[in-house]
Design brief:
Layout lengths: L1 H27 L4 H23 L1
Helix pairs in contact: 1-2
């Protein structure tokens, strides 16, 4: 179970970092609502997974 917990934290962190990268790339590329949406969703996904794992 210990490995599962670490994997959740790692993948959650990866999703948060990818979300920020998408947001930054979208902003530098001139914007676009789809890029901002996907960036925010990736950040929410990673944060949600980490939050739910910590509540266990």
């Amino acid at each position: 179970m210990k490995h599962y917990r670490y994997a959740v934290y790692i993948f959650g962190g990866i999703f948060v970092v990818l979300g920020w990268a998408i947001l930054i790339r979208t902003a530098l590329g001139g914007g676009g609502s789809l890029g901002y949406l996907f960036g925010a969703l990736f950040i929410a996904l990673g944060t949600g997974r980490i939050y739910l794992q910590r509540r266990r």
